[in-house]
Design brief:
Nucleotidyltransferase, domain 5; 8 helices; single chain; 191 residues
């Protein structure tokens, strides 16, 4: 599936939904065995609500690869960690149910990575409004500098420490949601 720019929303609409139907906004993140949606598998998936509370959070047993040393160096999820985890067919209905209730799906570069990876791994991603925090951050700071989630969190004064462990799907989803709120002016940096 290709995600088209017209699916992206403006700050005003995001703020409107936050005020009128905050329960209809979710943020997702994945950890994977690599970067190729056709060959790599999802090994962790989390979906959080507007406050960063988990709506879904699970390791996932992938059948696409048996080892992933490069990804392990980043996300610290080993084949042993996911050996007894549920597979995509076992969690698909629950994940799709959570996403189908969302009016807006937030993520960090999810339009180019997480959502295509999810579809390639067997999830049906609903056609709904997408809010990509990567794009928002890039449009805010421009070409100069780095555009990793850690850079966005630092710019937004969002804690990205052990409480929001980098490269865990749950931690990254919670940090991404907080960055979305700050980049749109809903939450301030002085909290």
């Amino acid at each position: 599936m290709t995600y088209y720019p017209e699916w992206m929303i403006r700050d005003e609409y995001f703020r409107q939904v936050v005020e009128e139907a905050p329960e209809r906004i979710v943020c997702l993140d994945t950890e994977t065995t690599g970067l190729d949606p056709q060959r790599d598998g999802i090994i962790s998936l989390s979906i959080v609500d507007l406050d960063g509370n988990p709506l879904f959070d699970s390791l996932i047993h992938t059948y696409r690869k048996t080892v992933w040393p490069e990804a392990y160096r980043i996300n610290r999820i080993s084949p042993r960690d996911v050996r007894d985890a549920p597979s995509v067919p076992q969690i698909r209905d629950e994940v799709e149910s959570v996403l189908s209730e969302a009016e807006i799906i937030v993520g960090y570069n999810h339009t180019r990575f997480d959502l295509p990876m999810m579809e390639s791994n067997g999830f049906n991603v609903p056609r709904t409004v997408l809010f990509d925090v990567f794009n928002q951050f890039y449009n805010t700071v421009g070409d100069g500098g780095r555009h990793r989630l850690a850079d966005c969190a630092a710019y937004c004064c969002v804690d990205f420490d052990e409480a929001h462990r980098a490269h865990t799907s749950l931690g990254d989803a919670a940090v991404t949601m907080e960055c979305a709120l700050r980049l749109t002016g809903i939450a301030g940096g002085d909290e």
